[in-house]
What we know:
The structure is a single chain. By secondary structure, this protein is mainly beta. It has one domain. The chain is built from 2 helices and 9 strands. The chain has a 9-stranded antiparallel beta sheet with strand order 4-3-2-1-9-8-7-6-5.
Amino acid sequence: MRGLAVVASLFAGAIPAAASGGLSCNAEDQSVKIVIESGVTRGMGSPIFNFRGVLEVLEKGVADDLRRTEFTGEDLAQYWLDAKSLKLLIYRERTGDKPHGYVELTIETQPGDDEGTYDGPYQLVVFDMTGDMTGEGRTLTLKGQASCFVE
């Protein structure tokens, strides 16, 4: 029995402790309001879980169904998180019977002055085929600054 306890304690010490924290990004200016939240696990690749976000486009001329977009983990196309940068690429296509349309949000930040902070530019591309008689669609590109925090 005693030998079993020794073996169990050796294995318990060999398993690394996994911790998780949070990730959040925000941007608010004359063109957009962006709120992103997610859990992030410490370890190989810093996997993201429970990803969600809301994008609100304030510019005129954007279709209602593309003006406010809610994101889930399925919309997170790519991400990168390390001590040098936090990058997110979020893409969501229009659903339903309307012609093709999408929103693509790219956030590329670098570490800020305070621990856990990341600051940098965002770029939002909104593409919409609705009502375009030329067959080329309309593209709106907006740029600004985002602030993120990782704990």
